Amino acid sequence: MRDMNVILKTSEHTMGGSCITTDMEEFEKCVNDIEVTDLCSSGMFFTWSKNLKSVVPGVMKKLDRIMVNEELLNKFNNAHAVFLLYLTSDHSPSMIIFSSDEIRKKKSFKFMNYISDKLEFIEATANG
């Protein structure tokens, strides 16, 4: 995995701009080649800040992402990303939230075969 340190779209930079750089084109090509997309997210949009300690925020960008492929989206269709407030790093911490329904394991039916030889079991099942 490579740290691209680049935005995908000009809207992912507080200074905006209309110039698409070569790095942005390379990043977009990589994302398309490996067939991933940003996971639906909430929280901080800009995930990196140049002047974290300053009262007035400086340049901010969306440099951190949680990207997933179609297989994960199909398996965990309610999963979403959360980007939290900056704490000590100039990058926003992130996490993936999975619905409890998606990760709950289904209990399998278990039949204890040793009771099928007992007379009480044979009588109970024979009479319905």
Automatic annotation (TrEMBL):
Top-level lineage group: Eukaryota
Protein name: RNA-directed DNA polymerase, eukaryota, reverse transcriptase zinc-binding domain protein
